[in-house]
Amino acid sequence: MPRGFTAQERDRISRALLATGRDLFTSQGLRKTALEELVVPAGIVKSTFYQFYDSKEALYLQLMLDEANEVKAKVIDQALMSTDDTRDGLRRFLHATLDVLENNPLWRRLVTHPEEMTAVAARLDPQRMAALGDNNPAIALTQYVTDRQRRGDLVGSGPDVVVGALQAVLLMPFNAGSIAAGNSGTYRKTLDLLVDIVTTGLTTPEGDLT
Fold it and tell me: What's the pTM value of the predicted model, to 2 decimals?
């Protein structure tokens, strides 16, 4: 019969599993992370892990859900949607997202290793995965671009190319060492210039209220 835990014990174990999962999934990825590595810091055995999560993929998904909620609030709610000026909104979105990619190692891992998301989706209930879509910044961005194209604020008749151009800017942090000979000051100025060029090129005069 499974051992019962007090509310305080469950909270401690849950927090330990999330913290360990964040560290290991970030540093070595989903596939290379063994269940034994996840449970030892929490002070539990492998069989007890299943009282908290059905699988390591379920733990990974919980971390993704937590990250997606925080990231969406930062890059969508507080940046993209913080102004009615489409050009300025895109500019704020790019700067906020670049900041996340540079300073949030788990989100950076999610962006650079999409196969891990696929592995998680293959193991979990579709309804559970659907919860991720509610706070997925990529979905919110596509909806925003679609809406602003219909308003005439953005160029093009479909969101894919516009979103693709924005994603191209977001690849910059992964190539920072090869840009401007690794000079951090020049890299930052280059990045700011690229953000301005892309957002100006994507918006129509109607979408620039400044």
Answer: 0.81
